[in-house]
Design the sequence.
């Protein structure tokens, strides 16, 4: 009945637009297998030449390793801080809870160039400009809202009486957290971790502000290469990021359906 | 947050749990941003000299105009296209929606840098579009598709589209489709039923999507910088130039403040109409 209300042209337009949205995947993958020495679609045959170049270039590999490390460390930090904060807000009075929420969401609302300027000035004073620690710290702050939002969303389905039950059975607060609440919202926490990791791995703008030469992350190296030589290796890196996003999304969807199952029973 | 001044022992457990994150965000994000805001009034000299440039500088006026035009155009195009997608999504089968969702989320989470890079490949003079146009004999020499307003607009709409679809879909999904059926049963045509029944009911979703896209376009950096190629300069890229090339800190800080104030103003106007907190949470 509902379907009959949709005119077929609308449906096809929607699918064409989704094809448009999806276009980067369709372009980047064939270009990375190009047999030409410059950025273009494959002409005569598919080739792994650019992948070989990527894997043989220590600059790109270092950038990959550095980005992975930064993302892993900032994810762990954001996960601890963001989850604890979400647990706290879940049990607060609505008034203070709104304040905390507003503060934690600020890094998401403030335009990234403004954050970049602000971080740079503060990091200069703390003497952590152009250091791994500086980047990890900045990414911890910008990842915090993602963890906070996903864990809060998971907690919204948890009955507060469960916590009281644990308490009345003699569990302390750390015990209640570790054995009762964390396991219940684990899918939410893990999905927060995924968001934080991908965010940090892809983040470019803040990195451009708080690092100079010598500290290249993968997006920064891509950016520099885009402005400079436009090597086809960029396409291989782009494919790598596409695959990462695909893996991330599949995991996230799996976690989301698990969360639905665990909290609905 | 309000309990910070009390003695530690008296802090309740929830406050203690939330405290570390709040302190870190306040100390390392809010404070530094406030310092930047102050810098606009103190560097190079105390006063409003930086802000006077808002009215007098011709270069700045041009950048503000470019930013405004690009943001408004991006928002209008993006929200209209997103509406078509979201409208189709609430009308097709459950299975089809899941596939649509999958593709949209995949693009949503793909790095903006990669998405912009893909457009460079497509729109370049040596790219597939120009090759096709030349092979078909429509043009003799490559058409300039990138490093101009067209390229930037296309790239921005492309990046913003998933962002607009998500809140629109969740708003449209809450509308009872039987209402349009009822209107049609009462003799309304298809178009009138849409314009008079469905569209007004979807207004909150439209406002939310419009604000989100507008706000994110305002501070947009990567796509305009790459696809504009220095010819279409928007405020975010201009701020970075002040930071990196001219080192005029007070001027950069004034621009940052102007950007931030515009974003907050847009959000607070929108907050009067829709529950932004729910949308920010629901978008992910």
Sequence:
């Amino acid at each position: 009945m509902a379907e009959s209300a949709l005119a077929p042209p609308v449906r096809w337009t929607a699918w064409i637009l989704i094809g448009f949205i999806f276009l980067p995947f369709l372009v980047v993958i064939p270009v990375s297998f190009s047999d030409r020495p410059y950025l273009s679609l494959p002409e005569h045959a598919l080739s792994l030449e650019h992948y070989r170049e990527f894997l043989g270039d220590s600059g790109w590999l270092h950038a990959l390793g550095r980005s992975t490390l930064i993302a892993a460390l900032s994810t762990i930090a954001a996960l601890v801080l963001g989850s604890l904060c979400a647990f706290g807000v879940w049990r607060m009075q609505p008034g203070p809870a709104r304040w905390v929420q507003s503060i934690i969401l600020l890094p998401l609302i403030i335009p990234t160039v403004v954050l970049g300027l602000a971080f740079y000035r503060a990091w200069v004073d703390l003497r952590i400009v152009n250091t791994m620690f500086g980047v990890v710290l900045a990414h911890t702050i910008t990842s915090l809202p993602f963890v906070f939002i996903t864990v809060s969303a998971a907690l919204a389905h948890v009955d507060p009486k469960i916590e009281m039950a644990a308490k009345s059975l003699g569990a302390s607060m750390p015990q209640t957290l570790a054995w009762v609440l964390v396991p219940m919202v684990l899918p939410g926490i893990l999905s927060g971790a995924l968001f934080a990791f991908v965010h940090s791995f892809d983040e470019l703008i803040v990195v451009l502000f708080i690092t100079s030469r010598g500290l290249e992350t993968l997006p920064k190296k891509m950016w520099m290469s885009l402005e400079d030589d436009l090597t086809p290796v960029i396409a291989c890196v782009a494919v790598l990021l596409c695959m990462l996003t695909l893996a991330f999304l599949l995991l996230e969807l799996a976690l989301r359906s698990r969360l639905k199952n665990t909290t609905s029973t | 947050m309000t309990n910070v001044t009390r003695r530690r022992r008296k802090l309740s457990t929830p406050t203690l749990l939330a405290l570390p994150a709040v302190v870190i965000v306040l100390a390392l994000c809010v404070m530094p941003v406030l310092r930047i805001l102050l810098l606009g009034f103190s560097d190079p000299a105390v006063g409003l000299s930086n802000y006077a440039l808002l009215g007098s500088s011709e270069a700045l006026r041009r950048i503000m105009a470019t930013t405004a035009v690009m943001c408004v155009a991006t928002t209008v195009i993006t929200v209209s296209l997103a509406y078509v997608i979201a409208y189709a999504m609430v009308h097709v089968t459950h299975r089809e929606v899941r596939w649509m969702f999958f593709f949209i989320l995949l693009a949503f989470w793909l790095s903006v840098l990669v998405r912009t890079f893909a457009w460079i490949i497509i729109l370049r003079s040596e790219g597939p579009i120009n090759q096709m146009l030349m092979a078909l004999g429509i043009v003799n020499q490559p058409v300039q598709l990138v490093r101009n307003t067209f390229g930037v607009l296309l790239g921005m709409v492309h990046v913003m589209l998933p962002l607009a679809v998500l809140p629109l879909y969740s708003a449209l999904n809450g509308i009872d489709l039987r209402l349009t059926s009822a209107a049609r049963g009462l003799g309304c045509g298809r178009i009138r039923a849409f314009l008079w029944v469905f569209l007004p009911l979807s207004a909150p979703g439209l406002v939310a999507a419009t604000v989100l896209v507008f706000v994110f376009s305002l501070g947009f950096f990567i796509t305009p910088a790459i696809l504009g190629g220095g010819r279409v300069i928007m405020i975010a890229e201009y701020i970075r130039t002040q930071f990196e090339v001219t080192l005029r800190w007070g001027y950069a800080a004034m621009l940052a403040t102007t950007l931030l104030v515009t974003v907050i103003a847009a959000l607070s106007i929108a907050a009067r109409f829709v529950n932004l907190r729910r949308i920010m949470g629901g978008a992910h």
